[in-house]
Amino acid sequence: MTVIVLFLLGIGAVIFWWLSQQRLMSKPWLEEGAAGDLPGTGALTVPAAKIGLGVFLAVAGCLFALLISAYFMRTAPAETTLADWVSLPAPKLMWVNTAVLAVSSVALQGAVAAAKQSQRNARQSQRNARQSHRDALKSWLLAGGVTALAFLAGQLLAWRQLADAGWFLATNPSSSFFYLITGAHGLHVAGGLVALGRTMGKAWGGCKADRLRLSVELCAWYWHFLLLVWLIVFTLLTGWAGDFASVCRQLLS
Question: Between the CA of residue 127 and those of 8, 15, 120, what are the distances in Å?
Answer without folding.
Answer: 47, 41, 11
